[in-house]
Please model this.
Amino acid sequence: LRTIPGIGPIVSMCILTEVCDVKRFHNENMTINDISTMIGMTYDGTNKRLHRAEQSLFKIISEVDYVKQ
Model:
């Protein structure tokens, strides 16, 4: 996870807590796609209703995306 730009040790641990086993993904794009599905994000950038755990992950991923830009 830390090879993805914008993701450091703390964000990695938060993602691992939600995802559990990242070995099931073949590459980082699959990881990001699955995480965006978990947090209720659609491809056009709009959000669906999020559960409490998903909200925290959504905030983290939003910050990572902001840092990447």
